[in-house]
Design goal:
The protein has 168 residues and is of the alpha+beta class. The chain is 24% helix and 31% strand. The protein is globular.
Amino acid sequence: MKVIKITVLIVFSIFLIACGEKTEKKNKGFSYENKPETSKQVESNPNNIVITGNDAMQFNKKVIRVKAGKKVKVTLKHIGKMGKNVMGHNFVLLKQGVNLTAFGNLAASASDNSYIPKNTNNVIAHTKMLGGGETAVIEFDAPKVGTYQFLCSFPGHYALMKGEFIVE
C-alpha cells in the first residue's frame, strides 16, 4: 500500500514539473512561445497601449507614455464581472488644461451619451462604455508633446480611475 502511494506521488510530481516548464516549438526557423501575439506587438510598439479596469474601480496603469507624431492604439479591457450600468468603464483622454474634476462632474450628468458630455471640445479620444468582460479599441494621432490626463467618466470613478498620458 505504501509503495502505491509513493508511486502515485512520484508520478504526480513529475506531471507537475512537466506542466510548469516553458514550452517552445520550432518551425522552419521561427520560434513560437506561449505568449499571445498582441503582447508581442504591444512590447514592440510603445504606442500600442493595453489598459484594464476592474470591479474595484481601478485602472492597471497610472502613467502611459507614447511617442509623438505617431498613431496611438488604446485597448481597454474591463476585466471585472459587473455590468456597465453598475460598474461601467471607459477611457477618456482630455486635452491639456482641462480640469479633470470639473469634467468628471459634468460627465456624471451625461448618462444619455455614455457619460461623455455633449458639445464639449475637451476630449481628444474616448472608448465606449464597457461592462465586465468587454473590450474596446480606439486609434488616434498622438497629440503634441506634453502631459495630458485620462480618466473613466462613469459617475464618481474619476476619483480613482485617472492617470497621466505623457507624449514624448
